[in-house]
Design goal:
The chain is 33% helix and 32% strand. The chain is of the alpha+beta class. The chain has a single domain, classed as SH3 type barrels (Roll), CATH 2.30.30.100.
Length: 205
């Protein structure tokens, strides 16, 4: 009987050690997985969050709304409400390059879910860079408000978008881009753009 108990104890000990080793391996595998997760993959997961998020930008501004799209290096919010530093301009859509984001606020359960469900998203979206979005705005002739570093805003229409910069014709918000309405032109490096506000969320459809 003592030998039976001895072997049972050995089995219990081996089972405990195996469980501990498996738990350690699972923990290490999770650490390794997390080390490979990119911010944009967390944002892709947060697109499934109906309560929305708040993006805090380098200039102290805040844009809040529901994440609608995530590209290679940008994300788009819809239903954007006015935020800090006077950046809000009513409901609509705003495109934010990821380099402008300092932190993302979301409900705690959504934050945890974005860790678990981090996803690179569709292959096409992974290739769609900020410049691609700007060139599409050029094609559509959509008036925009460019929020720049230093708290400045340029209202107008993007005439062209190069590899790392854009040209914008300045005019009053809501006015069509016509020669008589244009008050000036600016060449703006992409790196200086913190957000691009569109007049309506439907413009992203």
């Amino acid at each position: 009987m003592r030998w039976d108990r001895f072997f049972e104890d050995l089995e219990d000990q081996l089972d405990s050690e195996w469980e501990a080793e498996r738990a350690a391996l699972d923990t290490e595998a999770e650490r390794l997985r997390l080390s490979r997760v990119a911010l944009r993959e967390r944002l892709v997961a947060l697109c499934r969050e109906p309560r929305g998020v708040a993006l805090h930008l380098q200039d102290g501004g805040v844009h809040s709304g529901r994440l609608a799209r995530v590209g290679a290096d940008w994300c788009a919010l819809v239903g954007d409400a006015p935020g800090g530093a006077g950046n809000g301009a009513g409901a609509g859509a705003v495109v934010v390059p990821l380099w402008a984001v300092t932190d993302v606020a979301a409900p705690i359960d959504a934050v945890l879910a974005s860790v678990r469900d981090a996803d690179p998203g569709p292959a096409l979206a992974q290739r769609m860079g900020f410049g691609f979005v700007l060139r599409d705005l050029v094609r559509r002739r959509i008036p925009v408000a460019l929020h720049l570093e230093g708290g400045r805003t340029l209202d107008g229409t993007i005439d062209r978008a190069g590899a790392d910069h854009l040209d914008v014709a300045l005019h009053e918000p809501g006015a069509p881009r016509r020669a008589e309405n244009v008050t000036g032109y600016r060449i703006v490096p992409f790196a200086g753009v913190l957000a691009v506000r569109l007049a309506s969320a439907s413009d992203l459809a």
